[in-house]
Automatic annotation (TrEMBL):
Region forming the signal peptide: none
InterPro entries named among the record's database cross-references: ComplexI_Subunit1, NADH_UbQ_OxRdtase_su1/FPO
Top-level taxon of origin: Bacteria
Biological classification of the source: Bacteria, Candidatus Uhriibacteriota
Topology of this chain in the membrane: Multi-pass membrane protein
Protein known as: Formate hydrogenlyase
GO cellular component: plasma membrane
Keyword match Transmembrane helix: yes
GTP-binding as UniProt keyword: no
Alphabetic keyword roster: Membrane, Transmembrane, Transmembrane helix
Main location (coarse class): membrane
Organism: Candidatus Uhrbacteria bacterium RIFCSPHIGHO2_02_FULL_60_10
Annotated compartments: Membrane
Amino acid sequence: MTPLALTIIQGVVVLALAPWATGLVRWFKARLQGRHGASPLLPYVSYATLLKKEMVVSPTTSWVFGLTPFVVLASAIVATLILPLVAVDGALAAHGNFIVLAGVLALGAVFLVLGGLDPGSAFGGMGSSREMTLAALVEPSMIAVFAAFAVASGSGTLSDMLTVAGSGLLAHPGLILSLVAFVFVLLAENARYPVDNPATHLELTMVHEAMVLEYSGPNLAMLEYASSLKLTIFALLFANFLFPLPLAGVGSGLVMLVAAVLGTVAKIGVTMFLLALLESSMPKMRFYRMQEYMTISFFAALSGLVLVLA
């Protein structure tokens, strides 16, 4: 199996499973809360329906509003191709440095904020303001988490960091604190409980939804799909840090490739169940307490980095 083939296969698998991951966490939450719940395949239908709908664009918007969905989706796709999600040592694995990852994610977040501000609506401005506040709190924690793995593995690329994942965590106990901090980052970056409620449009709680309220049709489909893709990326990263196998590599045969794909499906299923269980057992936190939430995350990540350095 060549590096280029690994990258293509990983991209196809993750892009295909992303809507299912979003539908799965919704279905698990419904079951845990005593409801029947919609099919996990519903997001596929929802995105296809949005692609057929007409777009309604405010006359006050500029080119930034139309460009935002493409940049946000492109940043999520780039992250999908450079990270070790289904395979390691892909054609773009060398570009999977954690600083590059932070920059790619920040690019999508900045354009999403600009897209929320561009129409001049009250909700868009409120959501954009909240998003930038959260981004300023989340980025230091995410950098500290990956820095701890970089020090432990001796490399800044995510593929090399997996050499200290799984059983390698026992040799570096400080990385366990880093993984705890990564859970905080995962919830905040993907607008999940207790940071945000992805299933509401109430002005007191929404952050991500406020920025996309002015979008419709194919533009909204791209933004929602990018959100699903980002959730899948973070979930697989967390799962791979805990259980890095099975992952396909250069020279892997068909059996190993099938095992890697099935392992990816299983990892998504388990992480979405854990996410649904977590969200069903905690309330939404007030926005003005976010600094406390992310302070815990940052000090957990910083403690992990200090322990690894020591």
